[in-house]
Specification:
Layout (H helix, E strand, L loop, with lengths): L5 H4 L11 E7 L5 E4 L4 E5 L1 H7 L1 H9 L5 E3 L2 E5 L4 H8 L13 H13 L3 H12 L3 H4 L1 H10 L3 H13 L1 H5 L13 H24 L12 H5 L8 H16 L8 H10 L5 H8 L1 H12 L6 H14 L14
Parallel strand pairs: 1-3, 2-5
Antiparallel strand pairs: 2-3, 4-5
Helix pairs in contact: 2-3, 5-6, 6-9, 8-9, 9-11, 11-13, 11-16, 13-14, 13-15, 14-15
The structure holds zinc ion (ZN).
Zinc ion (ZN) binds next to helix 12 and helix 13.
Protein name: BTB domain-containing protein
Pfam families: BTB (PF00651)
Organism: Sistotremastrum suecicum HHB10207 ss-3
Length: 327
């Protein structure tokens, strides 16, 4: 968190122009604090609101008051941001319409502002907006990077499914924007880990929902004729294999998508493949689908543990430097 003292904030002359430009939306009669932007626009606001919203303003107004230019109760604070940024930020703290945020760049400016002045309300509100916007799908890599840069846990959780599904987009990140510079190879490994961990979990869900149930299902041709009575219909086994393979390539694959079953049926040697998959196993496919939906999109603890183990396997933890003694 950037620490800005009142002295730094009120660094400029502290003298007001004869006819200052005053924001038409922030000119409260009972204002006791003027925030002046870098382009000399004044915002006449309230110490109480700024102190309760921003830890930086609170510290500055309470501890460093003597360094501010004051005229009776009126404090003047110069900030380095331009007026349009101050206006947009203040609208999150006052009962006025908030800016309509349809792209990431203005959000980044506001996240930076919230970070610099330590304003949790702006951070929280922006995370709510971003987590529900179509930027998660339209700008997955940049949104993921912004979540990482500003440590936005809510946004990271929301963007994770799209990030895991679009790892290939991360391969070409090449620091195209300031935010994507925070991406490292480790992020790609982490996404890839989630992808394979999800397919393992899906495999378990699929088999645990059926492994004891084959015996109770009506005998299909391949089980009756091929001595497979103890085992599942070959169409089911082929379906489970195909689903897990497809899921590994595309983590959002829906198990109940009938095209997967049609693909298996067209190649199956069991004449009853169709009734097996669309009737006998339909409830199990539904059940597995519900369980697969519950599988998390991130496995941070497992990933860190596995990373640690692979470092130990390579003997990196034994790495010590020794030197010849100098005579
Ligand atoms: Zn069969």
């Amino acid at each position: 968190m950037t620490t800005v003292t009142g002295t730094q904030l009120a660094a400029s002359s502290g003298r007001r122009a004869q006819n200052p430009k005053v924001s038409p939306h922030f000119r409260y009669q009972d204002s006791n604090l003027i925030i002046r932007s870098s382009d000399e626009m004044e915002f006449h606001v309230h110490k109480s609101i700024m102190s309760s919203s921003s830890r930086v303003f609170r510290d500055m107004l309470s501890l460093d008051a003597q360094n501010l230019s004051t005229t009776s109760d009126l404090a003047l604070v110069d900030v380095s941001e331009e007026s349009d940024v101050i206006e947009a930020a203040l609208r999150f703290l006052y009962p006025l319409p908030r800016p309509i945020l349809k792209s990431l760049s203005p959000m980044v400016v506001l996240f930076e502002f919230a970070d610099k002045y330590d304003i949790p309300l702006i951070n929280f509100t922006l995370q709510e907006i971003l987590s529900q916007s179509n930027l998660l799908t339209d700008e997955t890599v940049r949104t993921f990077s912004i979540a990482k840069k500003f440590n936005l846990t809510r946004v990271e959780a929301a963007v994770m499914p799209y990030a895991v599904q679009n790892i290939s987009k991360f391969m070409a990140f090449g620091s195209s924007t300031e935010e994507t510079e925070v991406l490292t190879l480790d992020d790609i490994h982490r996404l890839d880990h989630s992808r394979s961990r999800r397919s393992v979990a899906a495999f378990v869900a699929l088999h645990s929902s059926t492994h004891t149930s084959h015996m109770s299902l009506p005998l299909c041709a391949c089980r009756r004729m091929g001595g497979r009575a103890e085992r599942a219909c070959e169409a089911w086994t082929a379906f489970a294999d195909l689903f897990i393979k497809t899921l590994r390539e595309n983590p959002s694959t829906d198990i109940s998508d009938p095209t997967l079953r049609y693909e298996v049926i067209s190649e199956s040697n069991c004449p009853d493949a169709r009734v097996t998959l669309f009737t006998h196993y339909a409830p199990y496919i539904q059940q597995a689908g519900r369980e697969i939906k519950e599988i998390p999109w991130a496995f941070p603890e497992e990933y860190e543990r596995e990373k640690l183990c692979s470092r130990e396997d390579m003997g990196i933890d034994d790495c010590t430097f020794e030197y010849e003694a100098i005579e």
